[in-house]
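This follows on from our talk about sequence and fold. Go ahead and set the record down below:
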Amino acid sequence: MRKSLALVSLAVTSMVALAFLIPLALVVRRLAEDRAMDGAERQAGALTPVLAITVDPAIVEQALASTGGQVSVHLADGRVVGTAKATDEQLATARDQGLAFRAVVPDGRVHLQPVVLDKGRVVVVEAFMPEAELSRGVTSAWLALSGVGVLVVLASVLVADRLGARVVKASKALADGARRMEQGELAARVTPTETGPPELVDAAGAFNRMADRIGQLMAAEREVLADLSHRLRTPLTALRLDSETLGADTNANRVRQAVHALEREVNELIRAARHELDDPDGGRCDAAQVVHDRLVFWSALADDQQRRWNMRGTERSAFVPLTRTDLAAAMDVVLGNIFRHTPEGVGFVVALFHQPDRVVIVIEDAGPGIVDLEAALRRGSSSAGSTGLGLDIARRAAESTGGSLVVDRGPLGGTRVQLHLTRLPEQEG
């Protein structure tokens, strides 16, 4: 934008300068010519008193020497005193009409001044002005005008560049705030600069109000979630008490285990929601810790179903711009699909790969795989024997960080789900 403004200013100012300088240059040339011919007219007029007294060639020649110019006199008898430049037609016109005029000759211009004497005699005084004298001072005047034009153009470009710098600075600040907001930094705000254009100052204020509104809406959403989780506690407590009366057989133990798992999840939801309410700017978590915790949670059920499982890559931290609840929900969707849609005894592997700007979580099972991958990725889609149910939740979690979700068939023969998440710098962790 800054370069464009400078180029526009250069083009416009150049056209305006040319529109003034070209006519002004022509006027300067015309003034120089008029000045020179006025001098020639004065030289010719200076001889009129002499010719009125005498036409003696010797005296006339002495008078010509005192004029200091290239002046000649055409006497009535045809003799010429001095060097003549005018043509016979021009001389005849001056004698016949009796009027002074200027004419063009090969080396310059002449001023012809007829002087009427007694007995109808007409003497013509010719004052010659060469081309060099006609254009004297024109070149230096043109150079001065060109210099002024260049200075005006450069000054306008400099002013446009300074104005463009103000616009670009304010635009960059607004773009930087939007980029930070896109990356999940909900506390990002734009500081309106007083030197920026009023429109961008208004846009910065609107951006800040929008960011505040988003923060309020997210806080309200978390509050609703926390309230809903609290309201679930009462029926969940009743369900847990009822499960304690079912006896001690295998099915009763499984029901009690499921109820306890559900209670832990509700407690986790309440804790996470309250944590985000207390820390609304903390939309980030350690992906390695979340992966480890979710595997520990699901490992009890995996061992009960005799599923062999493995976990890799969680030894060091990997921070991503997701809340712990959102990432845990995405993990639970994928892991839950394995338990729901593959036979007992089918193993699975969860691995976390560290890349410079990405964190990749790979969840792979040895089941039959997903028959229709495109259908599995559609919101709310499911099919028998697949692990695709609810993958839209995982996809939205990955895309909210600027990443993506990839589902294909892995080396174990079953479904492989890859969560590509944007990685936050270590110093922010």
In short: DSSP finds twelve helices and twelve strands in the chain. The first helix runs from residue 2 to 46. The first strand starts at residue 70 and ends at 74. Residues 276 and 282 are 7 Å apart (CA to CA).
